Amino acid sequence: MLSTISTGQQESFDWIVTTQPAAEPITAALVAAQLRVTASDDDTRILSYLIPAARSICEAYTNRAFIDQTITYIYDGTPPSVIELPRAPLSSVTSITTYAEDDTATVFATSKYTVDTQVEPGRVFLTQDATWPDGMRTYNSVKIIYVAGYGTAGTDVPSDILQAIILQTAYMYENPLGLDGKEASFVDSARSMTPIHDAQMILNRYKVWNI
Predict the structure, then answer these.
(1) Are 145 and 72 in contact (CB under 8 A)?
(2) Domain count of the chain?
(3) Dihedral of alpha carbons 102, 85, 198, 163, sign
(4) How far apart are CA 78 and CA 91, in angstroms?
(5) What confidence tens digit (pLDDT) does each residue in 29-52 have?
(6) Domain range holding 47?
(7) 177 — pLDDT class (breaks 50, 70, 90)
(8) Residue pair 159/115 in contact by the 8 Å Cβ criterion
(9) Stretch 193-205: mean pLDDT, rounded?
(10) Ramachandran category for residue 87: left, alpha or beta (phi over 0 → left; psi -120 to 50 → alpha)
């Protein structure tokens, strides 16, 4: 997903998940238990499509990353001294690269910034006396690559978030809009943006409001 946000002036930023989670936080078996059914091979196949969709819906609702994923953040213009990074919790920053007007890329020295993973959303802020380079281009000026998520496995994710994903997946399974024959196609664009009410009640306490 690509997100574009304007600051109200000429600056803006985009971000996109460039490396998806290596695993899903829940399994088809957990959803089948919620549904109180014995999942057939077809059911398991269908759930394998629904689980990533349900997880993405819940992540978007909370502005969080559940399983570790790599995100690329692009800022247009000169950033402020403190940058809040979308998708909590922030795990680490891999690199910051700046781009000059002639498109020359320069890795921004780690000595010039500090990564704050203790707040949500996580942030990068310039160290004392550090500044962004002069002569940066006006578009795609700064690229930050970072990892967000609770960890690499479902056991790292809070259990109530897992329950919300299970509820969302079960709802999507029980309320299909249709099948294309091979892959599940269950959710229209409007409904896919918001978790069901019961899932929202669980997820509300995890919402990150700043981004």
Answers:
(1) yes
(2) 1
(3) positive
(4) 24
(5) 888 888 887 767 666 777 888 999
(6) 1-211
(7) low
(8) no
(9) 91
(10) left
Q: Structure tokens of 174?
A: 């029980």
Give the 3-state secondary structure of the chain: CEEEEECCCCCEEEEEEEECCCCCCCCHHHHHHHHCCCCCHHHHHHHHHHHHHHHHHHHHHHCECCECEEEEEEEECCCCCEEECCCECEEEEEEEEEEECCCCEEECCHHHEEEECCCCCCEEEECCCCCCCCCECCCCCEEEEEEECCECCHHHCCHHHHHHHHHHHHHHHHCCCCECCCCECCCCCCHHHCCCHHHHHHHHHHCCCCC
For the record, the structure tokens of 7 come out as 């600051």
pLDDT digits (tens, 9 = 90+) for 81-129: 999 999 999 999 999 999 999 999 999 999 999 999 999 999 999 999 9
Contact residues for 97 (Cβ-Cβ < 8 A; gap 6+): 105, 106, 107, 108, 142, 143, 145
Tell the residue number behind the tokens 């002569």, with chain if given. Answer: 135
What is the pLDDT at residue 204?
96
d(CA 104, CA 35): 55
